[in-house]
Amino acid sequence: LLAMNSLTRSLWKPLKHVQAAWRRASPARAAEQRPPRLVLGIETSCDDTGAAVVDESGAVRGEALHCQRDVHLKTGGIIPPVAQQLHRENIEQVVKEALDISGVSVNELAAIATTVKPGLALCLEVGLAYSLKLVNKYKKPFIPIHHMEAHALTIRLINRVEFPFLVLLLSGGHCILAVAQGVSDFLLLGQSIDIAPGDMLDKVARRLSLSKHPECQGMAGGKAIEHLARTGDRQRHTFRVPMQHYRNCDFSFSGLQNLVNKVIVEQEKEEGVQEGELLSCAKDIAAAAQHAVAAHIVKRTHRAMLFCIKHNIVSPQNATLVVSGGVASNQYIRKGLQIVADANGFSFLCPPPRLCTDNGVMIAWNGIERLRAELGILNCTDGLRYEATAPLGIDISKRVEEASIKVPRLK
Asked: Would residue 6 count as lying in a domain?
């Protein structure tokens, strides 16, 4: 229990000297004469309890995070009531630690920003309830945050990225292609019609019993797959890339997972091992599964690039692909996306791995973005609710499908 409830003081040092490379020009003189505004961000959408204080220049004043990964690894997956209880036990201390590191009191905050959608309902409830207590006690404005919007905008904390840009969000719960036209202004090009890539890779790792593998002790499922795939032979098994005959930007990973499971069963019979025991070819299956996931993601992203250029949604002279979310830290998938970005004249940007996973910094920064744009700042929170599911932006996926863009083959 002590290990379960211990706080990771911060997964990275407070980025006190990280400044955004730009400031909004209007109203320039007034903004420069006053001290930068501060936002407290709180994140509890899944299995990480995060909090951070960020100022509008882009400096992270203080940050704290409690990660539940080790607990859920033992149970083979996230159990929402367990995650909720861990959030309840840790949220007060996480917020206190972020504030203490920052040297900022709640009274000095311009606003409090919190993830309210989408995510696990029981977990979102904890963050929202705690935040509203602070808001009501200290009479602060509240900024409700869309979790995927926060992931999409995180890059602007550390890079000079102007709207519009193409964004690919990859995580254990989501797979989304969208165009960020502005703060809270997105065009949805495509999304997963079933499970997310992170979820699929975790399930394959579980089916391969990689938690028992001597090279994968303490690794999350997706990380274990990536690690073993580096020394595996991906050509020993070939998995058909999903949805090749559908000229859209949607994704599907459940069928691919079934194909991988079928091969695992065949190999268990061939090697004479029971389910739950390690296969000698686990590395090869991991490599082949990861390659199929990467190929699927890269092809849909390629189509999105071609669609955006064809319809002048992004500028060919200043086109940017931003990739964020937990699965964005997978170096094999990143390499494939870098190749397709280079082939189409897109700059490729990805936040550092520590900012790709869920954290309080991205929520606070999204709050800063909304504060500066004067969007979604609430002085009255009556009737506010969390939402387990929530779309991102305006869905134009049908337009993408109607365009019927053929994607050329890349090496």
From this structure: no
